[in-house]
Amino acid sequence: MDSPTKGSATRGDRARATAQVDHPTPQDRTARGKAARTKVPRSSHAGWDPPTDRREPVDLLEEQAVSRVPELVPVRYGRMLTSPFAFYRGAAYLMAADLAATPRSGINVQVCGDAHISNFGLFGSPERELLFDINDFDETLPGPWEWDVKRLAASIAVAGRNNGFSDAERHEVITTSVGEYRTAMREFASMPNLDVWYSRLQVQEGLPRLQALLSKKGLKEAARLVEKARTKDSLQALDKLTHVVDGEPRIVSDPPLIVPVEELLTADQAATFLDRYHELLRTYRRSLLGDRRHLLEDFRFVHMAHKVVGVGSVGTRAWIILMLGRDNDDPLFLQAKEAQDSVLAPFVGKSRFANQGQRVVEGQRLMQAASDIFLGWERAEGLSGVKRDFYIRQLRDWKGSWPPEAMDPRVMSVYGRMCARTLARAHARSGDRIAIAAYLGASDVFDRSIGGFAEAYADQNERDYQALKDAAASRRIVAETGI
What we know:
Helices cover 48% and strands 14% of the residues. By secondary structure, it is α+β, with helices and mostly antiparallel strands. Strands 8-9-10-11-13-12 form a 6-stranded antiparallel beta sheet, sandwiched between helices. β2 and β3 form a beta hairpin. The radius of gyration is 22 Å and the shape is globular.
């Protein structure tokens, strides 16, 4: 992993740091938003009609598969075939291609790129507060803020159908969530810059406010999820993912989901590989803040294994790394996850960062209220000689989320609003919140338009899901289920 802080990326960063920055007045920014509304009416976002030259969905998925581990591509297809919602989670590239043909206001922010309802959840801040925030940034890039809103809204439509919600129930959940984004953006537009930057959704403070919104059963489940999230840390991972070999913990084998490096390579290759990655972990430290580098240096490298993660990420390279501190009961689990080009890049332009891991990290730091203290990046050369970009973070740090399939309409409405407010705050940190608020306005025109888009795109998702099912049935693609 060679550091992307060398070369042209650094020179580009210096140029941007010294460039003069314009500071338009709030009145100018409001005028910009209203002018965008005139050019691209809020009602223009309603509905979805696939263009005549729309590419076949399976073609796009196969295009993505070229850069992935071939043996794991069938696992990815199998996971996507679990349900229309699982397919939607893995189809960010398909939707990015579709969104490129939709109206856009011309106001850009740092977008998540995959802001579906399952990519929000709980995690621990460096101050050990439990926060609710976006938790996946693999596709982040500067782009149209509308694309994140549309992906979130459509995910609610797909998840609601999956749960058997009525048309009226889905419409209520979607428009209420989009309305929350709109009203939250108006609030952020009126706040001082530092107040926006420090804004965060603290879970413990939010639980009492949920009492009026959730049933007793829903509130009890929310409290259970919070308590469960607090147990998800490196100590839990040590207990669940390791066994003792010669007096020291080693990561267990659970193929194809978890495969220790020594099972992937010959003994000599594994030794070379481990030595190389041990050394390269030292260079990853350069992407961390000084105090965090110091903390990381108190841990020693012990073991690593390949791990299959997520739905959309299946097939990209991901490693879990076990490190130990004071003794065998002082573990640190890191995850090194491959960062390829964002699915948005063909439609909004490539990242300004030479290393795709840095793209992910910089986007996450910009959008999240607080980030993992070990979040960093590197570039690794495998035994094949191919260099790949990675971002690195803790494997588990109080992470938790509410599975959409377990939500009733009332719960999904509350959860959708939390996601929408969180998304608005992320966009407000990186983009022109005043212009976006002016574009959205005070009425529910945009809310209803996105409601129409979400349902129409849920129809498209079902057609694409069927196309993948047909491809599996005809043996055009191989799908491994149950993994």
